[in-house]
# Entry
Amino acid sequence: MAAGTDVVVLTARHSISGQVMLDQRLSDFLNDRRDTAINLRETKIARLNEPSRILQQHAESVIQKAWAVVAFEPPSKGVNAGQRLFGYVPKLRHQAFLVLEGMEVRGTLHTAGPLDLRRLLATTSDSFVPITDAVVTLYENDRYVIEQPAIMVNIRLLRYIGTIG
# Structure
């Protein structure tokens, strides 16, 4: 049975928050190619240059997964956000800096082996990859910084990636 999950989706220009009905982890849902859209309930939308000002509220809305740059579950009581986003598989950690459509992300990228940036981009079958200990800086408003224990990044909208350190 699907459970309502609070989700924040950042596009290049907007922040969209609402509730999505999931019967799987957020990462699995975002990478599920059978569904190309995110159906949201109780949605609020704001521009990234003024994220505290809600433009509209809607009982139901839809966003194409392809236009979601970053998606995450806001922290909630009881369950660590990092545990909800993806299953545990031993992986190597790499500090990374990513430039995406409308924002920059610093955080930890996880790989099964040594990091090969070209291979990561060329061979990944997933559209969304997890970044932990994420710090998101918005182009529209660089004073507004989002810090999350875990986010999902749309690798198809990646403009630049580099390792830190």
